[in-house]
Structure to design on (443 residues):
């Protein structure tokens, strides 16, 4: 199938301009001012932005105990403007070649968008023996979750083992010794106690320690969240010393804050927790300046009934926020519409930078000749209200319910095929393909 995507404002690798984009089968083959192209189907993009499909480096769609599967999760991704998502298990699971291959097979049957898999969570010494084969299978990064495993000797060992594979270690950085200490004597019927139990110092101490260990081990490290003003500063200082480090942020840290706990309690419980409201502006400035590398959703599915378990005791609710459907539109509305980032930086933080980090660039994350024809039509003028009752994710709730956004994803294409038309999913389960990271080939 040949397509001419016509009349839109297109964000290509060379800049943003009014131009028509040519797609042949699954690839972008050119850009032209010509109005027609032989035997091509016209995709009308008048008054639209044509943007590279967003790449989500960090989702937790897999949740064996629940209703969400890779079909509903990647349907949410497609509706949210993501054309590639990287999934990671919540618990130790995807840490052997056998399990990783099995997960590819299971996800392949269900996926709407393309996908990658992060190997993790690493908790056992024996997991380290499998890293090389997992790297060869194309994991974009390994994952270590400090709340589960935070002994420094194990982190050093893991950083060294990851370095040998050429693949970075992704870290959830929180210091559990401090969190246990700050948890003493709190009233858990008050949801804000969750924030008090995990103060900023617990993220910052963990970040500083991991950076020192990465320096000592000469390893690359990626921080899967920043929720404090200081976390990214620690990383930028470390980079000046030659430490290879990257960092991502989620829309909930850019848009929500701890005041949401009073109203939404367990529904905004996530780790690290939401912070005070003045930090959001600092995070936006860090994102605009490139001190924070990119945005991910950290999408997390759990059932509403599980969240409700935290109404009387906040500790009982699972931590995480379903974010795939709204992350791109939220980042646009609160970033571009509010003047915090420009359109070029928006495209970088939702598509190009995560694709580069994952080793998918330039196959993904960019509109360029030879790249996969993964793109979205985005209407920057359309206003709409978030209503989780019609979300594709089986979560069926959102802390963003009722928010009015300007800017809407109208159509999503994966490898030249329309997967979402603004209302429904247009392809059958299994359209999405596993995308191995090309990080090893590149380096
Ligand atoms: Zn996560």
């Amino acid at each position: 199938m040949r397509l001419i995507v016509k009349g839109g404002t297109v964000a290509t690798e060379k800049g943003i301009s009014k131009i028509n984009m040519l797609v042949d089968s699954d690839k972008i083959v050119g850009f032209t001012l010509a109005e027609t192209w032989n035997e091509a189907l016209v995709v009308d993009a008048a008054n639209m932005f044509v943007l590279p499909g967003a790449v989500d480096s960090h989702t937790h769609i897999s949740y064996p105990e629940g209703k969400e599967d890779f079909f509903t999760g990647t349907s949410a991704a497609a509706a949210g403007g993501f054309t590639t998502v990287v999934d990671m298990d919540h618990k130790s699971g995807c840490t052997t070649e056998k399990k990783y291959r099995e997960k590819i097979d299971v996800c392949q049957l269900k996926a709407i968008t393309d996908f990658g898999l992060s190997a993790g969570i690493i908790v056992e010494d024996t997991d380290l023996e499998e890293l090389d084969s997992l790297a060869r299978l194309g994991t974009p990064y390994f994952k270590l979750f400090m709340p589960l495993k935070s002994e420094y000797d194990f982190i050093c060992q893991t950083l060294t083992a990851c370095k040998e594979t050429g693949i970075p270690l992704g870290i959830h950085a929180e210091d559990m010794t401090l969190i246990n200490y700050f948890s003493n004597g709190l009233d858990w019927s008050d949801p804000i106690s969750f924030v008090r139990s995990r103060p900023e110092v617990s993220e910052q101490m963990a970040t500083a320690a991991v950076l020192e260990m990465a320096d000592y081990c000469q390893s690359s490290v990626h921080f899967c969240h920043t929720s404090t003003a200081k976390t990214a500063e620690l990383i930028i200082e470390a980079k000046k010393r030659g430490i290879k480090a990257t960092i991502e942020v989620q829309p909930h840290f850019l848009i929500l804050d701890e005041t949401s706990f009073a109203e939404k309690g367990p529904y905004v419980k996530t780790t690290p927790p939401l912070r005070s409201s003045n930090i959001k502006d600092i995070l936006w400035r860090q994102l605009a300046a490139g001190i924070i590398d990119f945005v991910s959703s950290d999408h997390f599915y759990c059932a509403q009934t599980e969240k409700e378990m935290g109404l009387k005791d906040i500790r009982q609710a699972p931590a995480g926020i379903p974010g795939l459907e709204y992350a791109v539109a939220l980042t646009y509305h609160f970033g571009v519409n509010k003047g915090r980032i420009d359109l070029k930086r928006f495209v970088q933080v939702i598509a190009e930078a995560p694709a580069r980090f994952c080793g998918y660039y330039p196959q993904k994350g960019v509109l360029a000749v030879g790249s996969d024809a993964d793109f979205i039509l985005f209407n920057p003028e359309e206003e709409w209200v978030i209503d989780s009752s019609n979300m594709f994710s089986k979560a069926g709730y959102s802390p963003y319910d009722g928010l009015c956004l300007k800017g809407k994803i109208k159509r999503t294409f994966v490898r030249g095929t329309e997967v979402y038309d603004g209302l429904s999913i247009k392809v059958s389960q299994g359209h999405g393909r596993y995308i191995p990271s090309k990080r090893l080939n590149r380096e």
Observations:
- The domain at 53-366+383-401 is CATH 3.20.20.140 (TIM Barrel).
- The first strand starts at residue 2 and ends at 6.
